[in-house]
Design brief:
By secondary structure, the chain is an alpha/beta fold. It has a single domain, classed as NAD(P)-binding Rossmann-like Domain (Rossmann fold, 3-Layer(aba) Sandwich), CATH 3.40.50.720. α2 links the parallel β2 and β3. The site of nicotinamide-adenine-dinucleotide has 24 residues, from α1.
């Protein structure tokens, strides 16, 4: 049987959610094609990718057309067509600022890197006919896309745009047999998350709010990604993977009525 191919963009280190997804895909027989932001990240990325049979790591920064075309060229030359593209990219230079203090420059940059990059990369892959019919693009959102979460600041509206792009792309690409979905995990301590003000409090609150008294692990998220990627009926969806913490409204029980 033909080996399935996954392009995974978003591994920064062993704690990255994309590393969890890539591991799950690899253990289910996928061939992993991965990227690395820059030289500095290389040892942290290879710590993950060496275990996943990745031989070549492609440097990739959003907006670098040459780097994107190098990936396209490689896939074409090797005759590899993708069964999934995992988009695990997010960046917000002013994440620590209150939303009303964020500059347009920073907001615009964050939309490009964290949301629109999914469209740009998908467009390059589709133009080169590198996505197999039945394939699935998957990205990562957060409940802050439609709830105001303290500390999440500018990333809430950016994730809202990302989720809207998921629906728009799903609608457009269905005719080519390509599905587009997002997972919306609860908080996981990663490099990107460590930039969020009060993240440890958010992690603790989510754990306490969860009826299961825990938050989702990288393994949970990886397994969900594998299911969504493999299920031909799932399209244009945003799936919570948060142990139920976002469906509970915490109410203090020790107060008199
Ligand atoms: N950690 C959480 O609690 C959590 C919860 C829900 C959703 N998410 C989302 O999961 C995704 C992955 O984040 P993570 O938490 O694994 O953190 P992470 O820091 O491990 O991953 C973020 C990735 O974005 C990449 N990136 C940043 N700027 C880039 C650029 N200009 N060009 C190319 N790549 C760039 C980084 O290299 C890194 O690999 C993000 O979309 C994040 O918003 C995270």
């Amino acid at each position: 049987m033909r080996k399935k191919n996954a392009l995974v963009i978003g591994i920064a280190n062993k704690d990255s959610i994309s590393a969890g997804i890539a591991s799950e895909l690899y253990s289910n027989g996928y061939n992993i094609i991965a990227t690395c932001l820059n030289e500095k990240a290389l040892p942290h990325v290879t710590e993950v990718t060496n275990r996943l049979g990745v031989q070549t790591l492609f440097p990739f920064q959003v907006g670098n057309e040459k780097q994107l075309q190098d990936i396209v060229f490689y896939l074409r030359e090797k005759g590899l067509r993708l069964d999934t593209f995992v988009h695990g990219i997010a960046f917000a230079s002013e994440i620590k600022k209150d939303l009303h203090n964020v500059t347009w420059e920073s907001f615009k940059e964050s939309i490009r890197i964290s949301a629109f990059s999914m469209v740009e990369i998908a467009a390059a892959l589709i133009k080169a006919d590198l996505m197999n019919p039945g394939s699935c693009i998957i990205t990562l959102s957060y409940i802050g896309s439609h709830l105001a979460v303290e500390g999440y600041n500018m990333m809430g509206p950016v994730k809202n745009i990302l989720e809207s792009l998921v629906r728009g792309l799903a609608s457009e690409l269905g005719g080519k047999g390509i599905r587009v979905n997002a997972l919306s995990p609860g908080p996981v301590l990663t490099r990107a998350a460590s930039g969020i003000k009060g993240f440890s409090g958010l992690l603790e609150t989510s754990k306490t709010a969860s009826p299961l008294d825990r938050t989702a692990t990288m393994e949970d998220i990886g397994k969900m990604a594998y299911e969504v990627i493999g299920n031909p009926s799932i399209n244009g969806s945003v799936y919570l993977v948060d142990c139920g913490s976002s469906v509970i409204l915490p109410v203090p029980m020790d107060q008199e009525p």
